[in-house]
Amino acid sequence: MFPVSSRSQYGIRALVYLARKQGHVATASEISSREGISAKYLEGILTTLSSAGLVLGERGKNGGMRLARDTSEITMRDIVQALDGQVRPVACVDAAGDCSQGGACLPRRFWLGLKSVIDEYLESHTLKDVSES
Amino acid sequence: MFPVSSRSQYGIRALVYLARKQGHVATASEISSREGISAKYLEGILTTLSSAGLVLGERGKNGGMRLARDTSEITMRDIVQALDGQVRPVACVDAAGDCSQGGACLPRRFWLGLKSVIDEYLESHTLKDVSES
DNA sequence: ATAATTCCTATCGGCTTAATAGGAATATAT
DNA sequence: ATATATTCCTATTAAGCCGATAGGAATTAT
Lengths: 133, 133
What we know:
The structure is a homodimer. By secondary structure, chain A is mainly α. The first copy, chain A, has one domain (6-131): Arc Repressor Mutant, subunit A, CATH 1.10.10.10. Helix content of chain A is 51%, strand content 6%. The two termini of chain A are 25 Å apart. The A-B interface holds A 1-5, 8-9, 12-13, 16, 36, 76, 80-81, 84-90, 100, 106-107, 109-111, 113-114, 117-118, 121-122, 125, 129-131, 133 and B 1-5, 8-9, 12-13, 16, 36, 76, 80-81, 84-90, 100, 106-107, 109-111, 113-114, 117-118, 121-122, 125, 129-131, 133. Chain A binds a DNA duplex through α3.
């Protein structure tokens, strides 16, 4: 129950690895071999993190990836949201809010509360916390 | 991210329905038609809830399902655990604890904390809360 | 007996996801 | 310039999960 995708888990490990580099670059293949993650798969994950603005990708020879900002400025919510989207326990807890039961749906509040506690936990932990703990 | 299975969602709706019955029986087909849930599928869900001791199944004619205990004595964690197993964001956060990285796995604490906040939220909300909110 | 119900087992089709493949775009080094 | 190393883009595959269905066995009231 409440499984976290491999994508997010890999992404976090990669970012922890980059955090240790203190802002210096590391290539996708370096991270993949050190962390034991499929090279091509991780490559795509890092590209996604780059689109999300969490890392900077530098192309070409001697290129690689580096953190886009300080580890204390990257929350765990930023990461999992970039890789697996918003926290959404059930379909009806988003902007659309198209619960088939309308306002009469009793469990809705309960699910909204669950979304809140998860979001708050993720948001209150930064990459700095995780990479130094 | 963090989707809750249809099984758990259906199960909760069925239990809310039963809660309204104040301990009287309702058949699986009655609940399925009232709640718009696939009959046979819901049947299996209720059987599972029965094995878990949350409802009592009475076989035979005039049989049906009733809550096994008071709504305030059934936590939301009881329900989702019965239907979808333990809260387990990542594989390594259970008794086995076979993290390939061993004690050197940095994100482990983070995931354990996430598991805790989810467990605590689920445990602190009962069927009574949800069915009366 | 008959009817109505829970309970058990097996199966199917569709969706998601981890993983792979091939290459295009880009930048550096020589 | 050319070769090399890297990110970035698009498609495809293989496997697993999950919602749903099917058919019945066991049980109980009428």
